[in-house]
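Continuing the batch. This is chain 6 of the set; chains 1 through 5 are on the previous pages. Same settings as before, nothing changed between runs. Recording input and output for traceability.
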Amino acid sequence: MPQVTAQTHVPIPPDLAYAVSQTHGDVRKRWDPFIRQQYFLDGATEPAVGVRTFTRARVGPAMISEYVSWRPPTSVGMTMRSGPWFFERFGGGWRFTADGDGTLAVWKYTYDVRPAWLAPIAHPIGQWLLGREITARINAFARACEDPVVLAAARESLTEG
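Output for chain 6:
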């Protein structure tokens, strides 16, 4: 399956970078250029393996995803349970490692398209589109790691956990 990856260095420790990446609600919409709407499903109130979320992109498509890994402060992984018709499979993973005076954040999408016969055309388009999107998101994440409002919310989530 094709993958797209983006990475950035942020000047905060891994636990705080992880917490920034997992903000929700208005705080998440403050920094994440992808999300128009996002919320937990099935009565969940916080992330954990098996928790599902609904996400609507700013450009329109919606997806229900499920956390398949949750390992604060190092990694998180999600997979699409339902979403846009053109994705056969879609998953995202985020990894955070200590790096000098901060954290190296690496984000990755893995996907496949349908119908399968369209893959030779759709995969290169997906690489370009998803590459642009993941780069914009990780750049916004890096800016969020310097935003006092986002950092305050992330720090609060660390003290609640």
